[in-house]
Amino acid sequence: MKRPLPIPAGAHGQFLKEISRLWPLAKGTLAEIRKPCIHAGCKACASGKKHSALVDLFMENGCQRCMYVSRGLAVQLRQAIANGRQLEARLSQLGREIIRGYRLERDRFKPRKS
Questions:
Q1: Which domain holds residue 85?
Q2: What is the number of structural domains in the chain?
Q3: Phi/psi at 20 (5° precision)
């Protein structure tokens, strides 16, 4: 019979409170790109400076995708991505805590060799 995971009582509710403080959440990368425009006499393109745009890079169904992001949304999206990274770090930490808890439980009932 499989033993249940050694998760402390109240851990689920505490985790949900932590997540709610991180809202909004997003996963991806916000990048600034430079592209030429379609205008023939554009001075910025002729000088090599080109035109900047923001894109959000993300994975969808195993493929990398991107979407243009307006400048007005960039600050909020950056914060959402930072929150998402904090969530990923917390999930990794929870996984390690489960493994350590399991090992402690296992070793507690294991007879010691003399």
A1: 27-106
A2: 1
A3: -65, -30
- Indicate the pTM of the whole model: 0.74
User: Does the residue 112 lie in any domain?
Assistant: no
- Match 């009932």 to its residue by tokens: 109
Helix (H, G, I), strand (E, B) or coil at 9: coil
Mean pLDDT of the chain: 87
Task: Let me know if residue 85 belongs to a domain.
Answer: yes
Q: Report the Cα 47 to chain-centroid distance in Å.
A: 37
Q: What span, in angstroms and rounded, lies between the C-alpha atoms of 105 and 82?
A: 35
CA dist., res. 30 & res. 81, Å (int): 8
The Cα 27–Cα 57 span in angstroms is 9
Taking the chain (114 residues) in runs of 10, the rounded mean pLDDT of each run is: 66 83 93 89 87 93 95 95 94 87 80 68
Q: Residue 93: inside a domain, yes or no?
A: yes
Contacts of 68 (CB under 8 A, 6+ apart): 53, 54, 55
Question: Computed over its alpha carbons, how large is the radius of gyration of the chain?
Answer: 24
